[in-house]
Each structure stands twice: as C-alpha cells, then as structure tokens.
Amino acid sequence: MKENLEQKILDVAEQLFIANGFTRTSTTDIARHVGCNQALIHYYFRTKENLFQQIFVQKFEHTLTRLLEPLTSELPFDEKITNCINIYFNLLQDNRQLPTCIINELAFNPERREFIRNNFIKNQIRQQAYYRYCETIEHEIQQGNIRPVQPFDLILNIISLCLFTFITLPIYTDLLERTPQQVEEYINHRRQEIITQITTSLRP
Amino acid sequence: MKENLEQKILDVAEQLFIANGFTRTSTTDIARHVGCNQALIHYYFRTKENLFQQIFVQKFEHTLTRLLEPLTSELPFDEKITNCINIYFNLLQDNRQLPTCIINELAFNPERREFIRNNFIKNQIRQQAYYRYCETIEHEIQQGNIRPVQPFDLILNIISLCLFTFITLPIYTDLLERTPQQVEEYINHRRQEIITQITTSLRP
DNA sequence: GTCTATATAGTGATAGAC
DNA sequence: GTCTATCACTATATAGAC
Predict the structure, then answer these.
(1) Which of A121, A168, A197 minimises the CB distance to B175?
(2) Contact B118, B53 (CB under 8 A)
(3) What share of chain A is helix, strand, coil (3-state, %, to 5)?
(4) How far is the CA of B180 from the C1' of C4 (A)?
(5) Model confidence over A126-164: pLDDT tens digits?
(6) A170 partner at 20 to 30 Å CA-CA among A13, A185, B60, B99?
(7) Whole-prediction pTM value?
(8) CATH homologous superfamily of domain A52-201?
C-alpha cells in the first residue's frame, strides 16, 4: 500500500495547499482528507515544510516550463502572441487557484524565494528558450512589425493581464454576485480583451 | 495614555498585518512590537479578528476612493489616462505591500468577501463617479478618439498592470538579485512602459 | 507501514490583582 | 488602564506498540 498512500497524501496535500495556502492547511487536515492518521503524514514526509516544498517545487518547475513553451513556437509572430495568451488562459482555467498560492508563498516568504533562486533560475534550457524569444522580438522590431518594446516587458504585460484575471476571480465572483456561467463568460471575455489589448498595443 | 496606546496598537498591527498577512501575525507579535502585554491587545479590541477588520476596512475604503478619483478628473482624455497611471504608481510606491495583503485576504477568505460586499459595493458616491467615468469612455469611443473598449475592461487592464508590478516586487527583487536602486529604476521603467502600453492599445 | 499516545510549543482569549 | 497568570485549544512532531 506504500506507493499508493504516499501518492494520495501528495495529491490531497496539493489540493489543500493550493486552495487554502500553507499556513491555513494543517497536517491534521490533510490526514482527515486522506483518511489516515496524522502521524502518517510525518512518517512519509517528516515535516509539513518538506511536504509543501516537494509539491511547490514540482508545480513551480512545471509552470515555468509551460510558460516558456508558447513563446518559442514556430508560428508567425502575430499568431504567436494570440496563441500564447490562449495557452496561458487554458492553463489557468485548469489551475485557477495555483497562481494565487504561488505568488502568495513567494511574496510573504523570503526563504521560499531564496530556495527558488538557488534551484530554478539557472536552468540552461529555459535560458536558451528565453534568448530565442528575445531575438524574435528584436527581429520583429527591426522589421518594423511592432513598436519598440523590451522583451521582458512584453512578457510581464501578458502575464500581468492573464494572471490578474484569475487571482481576482473569487473577488469578482463574490463581490458582483456572479453565477458560475457568468464567471465562465467573464473569463472568455477577458481572454478576448487581453488578446486585443496586447496586439493593438504592439502596433508600431 | 489610553488614546495613545490604542492608536499605537493600530499602527503596529497595520504594519505587521500588511507585511505578513493575518494568519502569520499573532497578537503576541503585535504586543511585543508595541512594547506592552498581549492581554492589552484584547482589552482594546477584544478579538484579533476585530482588530484586523478595523484596519482592513479603513484601508479598503481609502484605497477604493483613491482609485476612482483620477478616473473622474477634469483633464483632457489622453492626459487623464497618463495621470491616472501615475497616481496609481505613486499610491503603490507608498503602500507596496498593501495590495498583496488585500488580495490575499479576499482571495482565501470568503467571509471577508461577504463582508466587503455587504458594506462597500453600494456606495452611491462611488457609483456615480464610476458612471461618470463610463460616460467619458463611451463619448471618446463615439468621437473615434479611442478603440472600442468596455470601460470596466480598461480599468481592469490598468489595475492589472499596475498592481502586478508591486505584487511581484519581492519576487523580482530576490530572484534577480536586484539592489534597492535597481528596484526603483525598475518601478519607474514599468511605470513608463505601462503608460505606453495602455495609451498605444487605445489608439483606434 | 500504520496506529495510539504524547511531548512540546504556540495560539487567542479571559479572570483577576493592582 | 495595565499587568500576571492561566485556560482551552490547536498545531507539528516524535516514541513506541502492533
């Protein structure tokens, strides 16, 4: 039963950590949802911090990779941007609470930033992908296809607009009393608006 | 000493809550920073929740008002947008951790959204300011001065870009190992980029 | 590997002396 | 109004039986 239970703890913990954050999730909580004793959580992962970090690192790694993929696709440039935003939105629609959790942990916890800095920044494959993306942007600017913009700024603009939609989604839903269907419509509306917003802002 | 101490507790609590969030701040923490006993916090505010809510509501109210002000200024339209982003950036530079705290509390705590919904949404003065802003946008669109855009989307775009800069500021600083001076340069760079980004995206 | 029991520490909150 | 002492609770983590 070992393999199964360890994985189940990971799955349940992931769900609870993402939904409620690290401090709001207790090992007792996790155990109850798994259907086992609280001591077992510590048997497999020794500390709550270990358990969290394992999940966090895996999610972070995965997200970082997925973010860079659409930037280096072989599509023509204007389609590439649209494609990129669409992929981000698809990704976010399947992981609505993840960005809030990640940003939250990184914003409030210097040690977690320290950890990420030491383990993720110097990934060569990702760096190459990023350089390739930068070259594309500079090429498009030189060709006069888009306005002068720093590649890093463009990424920030896209991520800001996409992520913010989902970070504020519970707020939007509850404060404006939206039905689930209205929320889906809102997400797709924002998706289109952001595509328009980014592409029009890039015109030279 | 009453008046002074109560105010000092409020000040210290505000600082700690904004820096670390509600769950990460204990009343013992607050007392230690104030230089008094922990029981005193409860003497003045009875519960930690009370203390937090008092600060939170005041900050939220204040922020909401400040956000609407620049949208209804008497400036010509193109200056108005620039002015608006500049004011938001000034506001954020003086309250760098506030948006993370507010969004965090609202994102993870349904009761706090419920509370905000019941107490802040139906403010008549703010609603009038918002309607006035909407009319301006629609007028500019009809005149052909800007592209068709829903007023709510424009606000969301601006807020997304501005807030995200500050929400991710600790991450940017630590992960890329920026000096304080570099961080200030980055903020001002983003300020200019966002102004460019929004204004160019509005061209018809 | 899984359980019960427990050590240890921290929390928010209250009672009561001064 | 401010303090000490303490309660009731919850948390993480570990020891040890099975």
Answers:
(1) A121
(2) no
(3) 80, 0, 20
(4) 53
(5) 999 999 999 999 999 999 999 999 999 999 999 999 999
(6) A13
(7) 0.96
(8) Tetracycline Repressor, domain 2 (1.10.357.10)
